[in-house]
Amino acid sequence: MSLSNLIKETLDILDLNLIFTENCLTHEKIGEDICKVYSGSLTYFPEKCLHCQQENNQTIIKYGWKKVMVLINDVSEYKTYDRIKKQKFLCKSCNRSFLAESTLTERHCTIARRVKLSIAEKLKENTSMTGIARAKHVSTTTIYRVLKDFYTPLS
Questions:
Q1: Which of 29, 70, 75, 128 makes an SS bond possible with 80, Cβ 3.0 to 4.6 Å?
Q2: Phi/psi at 7 (5° precision)
Q3: Whole-number Å distance between alpha carbons of 72 and 56
Q4: 84: closest CA among 112, 56, 57, 126?
Q5: What DSSP character marks residue 125?
Q6: Where are the domains of the chain?
Q7: How does DSSP classify residue 77?
Q8: Residues 99, 141: contact at Cβ < 8 Å?
Q9: Partners of 42 in beta bridges
Q10: What is the pLDDT of residues 32-54, one digit of tens each?
Q11: Could you confirm whether domain 111-155 is CATH 1.10.3470?
Q12: Predicted confidence band at 114 (pLDDT cuts at 50, 70, 90)?
């Protein structure tokens, strides 16, 4: 098993396009907390443009990188992030750019799906939203959004 696969297995990441290299783990001070930060890169060849849906017949080119920080579940009681260097693409048909997408998060979101699932599980217990927010390092507004996404009222 490669080092990248071992890290993905440990962090419960299923995305095959996300690659971690040796020495990808650092401890950094983010805000007032010492956090674990795993650095990786996400790239692939897209099949079609996200905007115009044009098939990729040499019309989509790699167009640089963008770094994003994604909050993932805690590791050894440390607040933990993935610093992902995402590939940018440019579509020559519509002249618009877009980022590589990962199964780790939804589009335009910096909180991992696993964190949201964990929040949904905690909402089943008799715990306050503020307590869950503190434990998961998110805002109470995020807790409310997860509640709205996962639970529908009985009518």
A1: 75
A2: -65, -45
A3: 32
A4: 112
A5: S
A6: 3-103, 111-155
A7: T
A8: no
A9: 18, 86
A10: 999 999 999 999 999 999 899 98
A11: no
A12: very high
